[in-house]
Amino acid sequence: TKVLLTGGSGFIAAHILEQLLAKGHSVVTTVRSEDKAAKLREAHPAEAASGALTVAIVPDIAQPDAFDEVVKTPGLEVVLHTASPFHFRYTDPKELLDPAIIGTTSILRAIARSAPTVRRVVVTSSFAAILNEALIDSPATTFSEASWNPVTLADVARNPQVAYRASKTLAEQAAWAFVRDPANAVRFDLVTVNPPMVFGPVVHYLASLDGVNTSNARVADCLAGKWRAEVPPTGAAILWVDVRDVAAAHVKAGLEVAEAGGKRLFVTAGWFSNAEMASVVRRHFPEDAERLPTKETKGGEIPGEEERFRFDNEATRKLLGIEWRSFEESIVDTARSLKKVGA
Ligand code: NDP
């Protein structure tokens, strides 16, 4: 199958690329710079030579015509759109919102106009588009594939987390609205993959400690000794999933599970806390003991079961049939991969 994967240099996308190539699919992937394109080609010389891997440069996905050319690649059947900013280094929230929202609508519009062979588009959304901050502390809340974050543009000024959640929510809403609008005459179906916090090993040929992705940064911080005095708060969105399972979910949703069409997939392995993360790292990396929190170090606990929201992702689990990796395996593999690049 011929697949277009956007943002191929990203933490999650790099795993999707690995899995697609391992399964023998042809991949066209987009990155922002020639430097990253070269790294991808060098890591996959055989596929780059045979044409199974093509890397295209799309410098700015916030441009409405960003994807107009690359979607014209002959014979594309599936598009996996993962590129979207997940960081808090911005001065204006538009730096998150525009690539997220315009990036999503522009790729859908380009496909609808110029890529008649595409049968399915998978958009990487987020648990950020499912949760509702006002209900997060209540055991009466159950978040599922049917839940929507009520955040609006008016909320983005509140804080960077809210701005990021808005970028994902509004981008996903725009995607569903686009495919449902008869004026767009779409001939493909849409699937969204909605992961919470994603941990897991970084793909080595792209990895650097400076460039560690946002969700893994807390593992890097723990290894760097920043949690020695106190484990930081876990945050509100206390669900997680391993990156290899998120990548597998994209591959299944895009290429293998026909019934996924039209669905939101809530991919999560369950609860986690920074306290548990600290304890896994401490148990597995005794050689780093003097930098790590001890058993007595306080912080990072999550509310007890009676003070947290519930979640229900049975529909997704049944549809995809993925056995989620354990938190321990995920964190140990993350830490090992970060130590290889100097953590
Ligand atoms: P990364 O930061 O590693 O990847 C983000 C990707 O988007 C990179 O390929 C990046 O390119 C690209 N990108 C970001 N901004 C722009 C822009 N303005 N123009 C062009 N490309 C851009 O993060 P993840 O792999 O974690 O994120 C991938 C997707 O998964 C995103 O949609 C994110 O919202 C979603 N997600 C991530 C979660 C997590 O915990 N990691 C949880 C839920 C959803 P470059 O490599 O050049 O920076």
TrEMBL record:
List the InterPro entries: Epimerase_deHydtase (IPR001509), NAD(P)-bd_dom_sf (IPR036291), NAD(P)_dehydrat-like (IPR050425)
Q: Mind listing the UniProt keywords for this protein, alphabetically?
A: Oxidoreductase
Q: Which Pfam families match?
A: Epimerase
User: What SUPFAM superfamilies does the record point to?
Assistant: NAD(P)-binding Rossmann-fold domains
Q: Where is the NAD-dependent epimerase/dehydratase domain?
A: 3-259
Q: Which residues cross the membrane?
A: none
GO molecular function terms listed in the Swiss-Prot or TrEMBL record: oxidoreductase activity, acting on the CH-OH group of donors, NAD or NADP as acceptor
Q: Give the family from UniProt.
A: Belongs to the NAD(P)-dependent epimerase/dehydratase family. Dihydroflavonol-4-reductase subfamily.
Q: What is this protein called?
A: NAD-dependent epimerase/dehydratase domain-containing protein
Q: Which organism is it from?
A: Staphylotrichum tortipilum
Supply the source organism's classification. Eukaryota, Fungi, Dikarya, Ascomycota, Pezizomycotina
